[in-house]
Fold this sequence. Notes:
Layout: E1 3-9, E2 14-20, H1 22-32, H2 36-54, E3 62-69, E4 76-81, E5 86-90, H3 107-111, E6 115-122, E7 129-134, H4 141-152, E8 156-164, E9 170-180, H5 186-198, H6 202-208, H7 211-218, E10 224-231, H8 240-250, H9 252-260, E11 265-268, E12 275-278, H10 280-289
Antiparallel strand pairs: 1-2, 1-10, 2-9, 3-4, 3-6, 4-5, 6-7, 8-9, 11-12
The chain binds zinc ion (ZN).
Residues 236, 238, 269, 271-272, 274 line the site of zinc ion.
Amino acid sequence: MDRIIRATGAEGYIKMAVVTAKDTVERARKLHNCAPTAAAALGRALCAASIMGNMMKEENASLTVRISGDGPLGGIVAVSDHMGNVRGYVGNPGTELPLRSDGKLDVGGAVGRTGTITVSRDIGLKEPYIGTTELVSGEIAEDITEYLLESEQVPSACALGVLVDTDCSIRAAGGFIVQLMPFADEGLIEKLEENIFMMDQLTTILDEDGAEEVFCQVLKGIDYHIVSEEPVEYRCYCSRERVEEALSAAGREEIGSMISEGKPIEVSCSFCDSVYTFTSEDLNAILMNS
Ligand code: ZN
């Protein structure tokens, strides 16, 4: 089962969260029929959204990560609720590139090196809080790190990883974000950087030892304790009512032209495999109520 584990260290100067997301990313891969490179890109974005969403305190809040690069993937959307349950999709799930020279999936090449990352936080106010920064590499973890520093002024380190098995299923997936609180000691920063430089490959740790070992390696030599552990999963909140609301918002003219075609329309959810069918009578009822 996937989970998010949070820890605090160095007398509160360090906050760290690790997400394990093998089942979540496997569900996303199957739902969207993703090729390995596309699955890795979507999986990394889902892991980042999950950790950042789980950091929000407001009930019913949601967080959306949008990555628009100039690569063949055609953009990524990842949405998290305030617990870290996520959903998402990519523009072109069939995107597959040759492996990089180091044997890794070329996520940066699929996403594109030029573009933007936008994070919006909806905490139930009239307008969501939105921040945008330029992509650094399209590898996603670096882009998230830069976003957190530039847009939210929080110095962080982030790593995200998706390991795709030979049968194309997800063998391991997860990520972490470590944040430094203001006035953290310079020595502490150096220690963290050294630990992260020296650590084993994230997906190897997750695959072989589990999430606890990620804390051990990243926070090596630093006092820390686990403060919470919560289950997370791939979760879509779509419903017939929500689709009706969206149709209603499309406008009377739009609904009118759907009715005039005289046949039922099908609306597919972008995030899951739900399909909602509306007959002309259903559409008329929506028109009457809008
Ligand atoms: Zn759905």
